Amino acid sequence: MSNTAGGSITNSANKTGEYKRAQSQFRNYISRRPGAEFPPEEGRYHLYVSYACPWAHRTLIVRKLKGLEDIIPYTAAHWEMLEKGWRFTKSDEKLPGEHVTPDPLHKDFTHIRDVYFNVDPDYDGRFTVPTLYDKKQNKIVSNESSEIIRMFYTEFDELISDEYKKVELFPENLRKEIEGTNDWTYNDINNGVYKSGFATTQEAYEKAVQPLFAALDRAENHLAAHAKPYYFGAQITEADVRLYTTIVRFDPVYVQHFKCNIRDIRSGYPALHDWLRNLYWNVPAFGETTQFEHIKKHYTKSHKQINPHVCLHLSPHPATVFPLLLDEVFTELGRELIARRVSPQ
Fold this sequence. Notes:
Strand content: 5-15%
Mean pLDDT: 91
Structural class: alpha+beta
Radius of gyration: 19 Å
Largest sheet: 4 strands, mixed
Distance between the termini: 23 Å
Low-confidence stretches: none
Helix content: 40-55%
Shape: globular
């Protein structure tokens, strides 16, 4: 998500009231090929994210799944995104989540946009997260999440242990199915919630929200018929990563804030709900990178076109939205997971 030099993301509707997402502008690639401009190196790259943003959330999940915590450090912005876009947390502010700090690389920078202008003083595009920054060359490698996560899949494999090398999120035998799923998941679910929420006419809203729920029905039917426990069976893949970051935000935010309220996940989609609960509670890369305070406050307090009085809605506690199975709640691990992941909202 982003602000632009020209205005707010919430003002991105066209003349018919339909929200149109702009394309990412930095599309370079980290590569192991000899002579590559951006070779894989430990500590060379810095990842800027927000815990609120579903696109940035993808990169945090994959970074953890691939064991890149010591290879690629990151900084999480404050949840607030106003006229100047994402801002860094001030030194006296305390927010949940790891690495929610001022910019450690540029002590006088207050916003993500400062990184962009430092790289290119004439930049007039989007100030987005995730942003993958090359400290050595003072260049932005990429601000396209779908490409950043694929760099993480393989390009750093010579720097990580065999345990993480074996993690294949885009396996050869499933690539066709994953790419096909990505297409409609992105257009109708990942971006569909935004097209619904940022629509400025009734016609544009209905044009977006109906395909959104048709796509959720499609994902539900797939999971009910085929997948246990992950989207394509026994192995976590890119499809899980890309779908999770929208579904985990759906009931806490999108149902009310973006008017995506034909059904909710926990009562309307049992297979999706089980899939979500498993990832959230049982796979640390998913649950430990999910910060509900950032998510709820960002949407309700940053999108003033939608919520001009910035009232923060009350919503079900995450332990209710994503409950452990009953027998899991009473295990020592279950109690530890609840204490670590869930705080009052």
